[in-house]
Design a protein that fits this description.
single chain; FAD/NAD(P)-binding domain; seven-stranded mixed sheet; binds flavin-adenine dinucleotide
Length: 352
Amino acid sequence: MNDSTYDYVVIGGAQAGLSMAFHLKKMNKNFLILDGGNEVGGSWLSRWDSLKLFTSTEYNHLPGLKFDAPKGHYPSKIEVANYFKTYVAKFDLPVRLNTLITAVKKTEEGFHVIHKDGTIAAQNVIVATGPFHIPYTPPCHTKISSDTLQMHSNNYKSTSQLQDGDALVVGGGDSGYQILNEISKDSSRTVYFSGDTNVRSIPQQILGKTIWWWFTLVGFLSYSKYSWIGKRLNSSTQPVIGTDVKEILSRKNVIPVGRTKDALKETLFFESQNISTIKNIVWATGYRPNFKWIEGLELDANGYPKNYRGVSNITGLYFIGLPWMHTRGSATLGGVSKDASYLASEISKVND
Ligand SMILES: Cc1cc2nc3c(=O)[nH]c(=O)nc-3n(C[C@H](O)[C@H](O)[C@H](O)COP(=O)(O)OP(=O)(O)OC[C@H]3O[C@@H](n4cnc5c(N)ncnc54)[C@H](O)[C@@H]3O)c2cc1C
């Protein structure tokens, strides 16, 4: 053991972890935030260069410090990272970077939080490692020729990474459509698209108000996942926000090909045709959760920890920032505050 025992260790120092840290500081707890990255805001900075948030300033505030930008502004990833850095400085939050946690073990006294250089003891642990862990790529990617450049959307930064020739974007969510939009702006490149072309897309502004203003008005972001309407929202396909799907799909150089079925060397087999000219592939095919490093944790059918609003089945172990942890807003910048505030009140009851 190379550290004293903390009341709380927070694993993950992005929006979810920082929101909890804000409350721990207010409660005068002895705590430490651990993050595997080498920079505060790293999870945002690692996303593609042209990323603009789909939530405008007024929906990006963490507890205690407003996002400093004009109302209606859609920040870049750098602005988000800078906001986190200011947040850490303002509340003097103790963040230890370059500390990837590889295991959490329950002990008689609390927990052992293990990283490659040692073990940290804590009475309680709050896991804030984000909603997205292991990039998922369909198994057929291993059959594709090594001459074809392949990357997950997690590693996509800009079109400058691509080699000459046709491209393929797989995945019809927000990321897939945003990347398809960017790559197909160069009309000299044919870009195949494998994914749902029948998705609902919602513009960022309706009648002069942001979509989040409307979502807030109708309560879309605050339905509990345990309510009837919350269950329906949770199980329905999410619309694509702020990307004009129809316009992108109408571009002459964008060719929808249906689902990707298989691949063999240069040839990819799609629902509608087989193509052998693809030189670049971006897999915007989502992520799988990874909580296997937490000993004794019960997972649900989707691989997420069983919990009620962040309180897990292991005494002293908490979660924050999981997708739909309580509402649609749980894994968003503006929504994590409510969950953090609830969890803080639960924590204060336990330790009173
Ligand atoms: C492309 C994209 C665009 C998005 N746009 C928006 C938007 O416009 N508005 C919005 O509100 N939301 C948006 N989101 C959703 C959400 O706000 C982000 O995913 C956000 O990054 C989640 O924050 P988080 O703190 O829960 O986790 P993350 O940002 O994923 O951060 C987790 C932190 O934990 C650290 N970590 C992970 N594992 C370990 C470990 N084992 N040990 C130590 N440290 C660890 C990581 O280094 C990281 O710093 C977007 C998501 C994506 C993927």
